[in-house]
# Entry
Amino acid sequence: MANTYTLEAEVRTDEGKGASRRLRRTGKIPAILYGGSGEPVSLNLKENQLVRHLQEELFYSSLITLNVDGKPETVVLRDLQRHPARPVILHADLQRVNADEKIKVVVQLHFSNEENAYGVKTEGGTVFRAMMDLEVICLPKDIPEFVEADLVDLKKGESLHISDLKLPEGVESVQLAHGEDHDLAIATIH
# Structure
């Protein structure tokens, strides 16, 4: 991966709704760090730093170096809670990762050749995207930036399925691991 992300964090001692509100007013976001061999830890993240990283699609499926009071840990972003009406992040969940353990991550799908697809260019169809991302399982070092879905050979009435994707080596689809009947359609030309 080309980009590396770093977040600064402090251990949080105050917990609860009121403490979280006071924390947000000071430009910090409450968070939790869990998983791996360590105990769950309540944290404060710098709001401006997190918001800047969230503007990049790659951040959501990248390894992040989290400096907790100066001690670095490798983590992934697991969940974000956002305010329902305002553009405010309320809480973040971060999970520790081990280099030798496979993890599940959600990776964005990038659709290519939509306008050049046979069913669009020759038959006058339109592309319907059924999925925008894909859950994969792999080692942390093998997490792809995105998965490409090439639609160039797709004809009108046909669908591109998960099994049609070319996943990088060491990366497998969680849905396909459940069996062939979970081979969902990613895109269709109507």
The longest strand covers residues 71-82. The mean pLDDT is 90. The radius of gyration is 20 Å.
